[in-house]
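**Sequence, structure tokens**
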Amino acid sequence: MSLKLSHQSLAVRFDHLLKVISGERFLQMRGLNNDLPFYICEYKAGEEQEMQRMRRQLINALASQTIPCLGGRGVKVLEINLYDVCVELLKAREGSDEGVSVWQQLLTIEPEVDKDALKELIQNVLDVKGYLIPAIGDRLSEADFDVLFLSGIGEVFPFIRSHNVLNNLQSTAKYKPTVMFFPGEYRYSLEQGASLELFGLLHDDKYYRAFNIYETQA
């Protein structure tokens, strides 16, 4: 049995991602059969640092390509890190004390509050539909890009769940291909359907409307 592409070396995976993402079929969103242009790039949680480096290299390599359907220029990638967006939102929101941000309040109370209470507080402030998706939408409207990379999935767990982000992005990010870099596995079976298994351990509920980018042809 051959090794899954997502379990092969970083060099092999890099070559596949570069070939697929720079392909006209991917960029022009062909062959989706009315599905969304959402793709999952799975990797082992222990590869986080390596994947960060590979993502930077991939963005640079895509920018240096000559793509006919883009007028001969390279692929412009917009990377949005969910953790960075969340921190910005928390810093921008004023807390219960005048002049103090929610972020500052969280840093103060974190050692004294139990995890469930802290989780509930953060989820209320970072409501995906009410705050996170509009913030992402603002970034999309301000940027000139061909492909969206979503990262920081593991860092925002358990306050924000990946399937919830994808579900709410359906109306906001459907006009350009989106690649979510996911520290876990995107599993699919006829019996159980599709599911996102965060860190390869935590069942992150069912999500059907994305493609595994390692199973995508250029």
The radius of gyration is 18 Å.
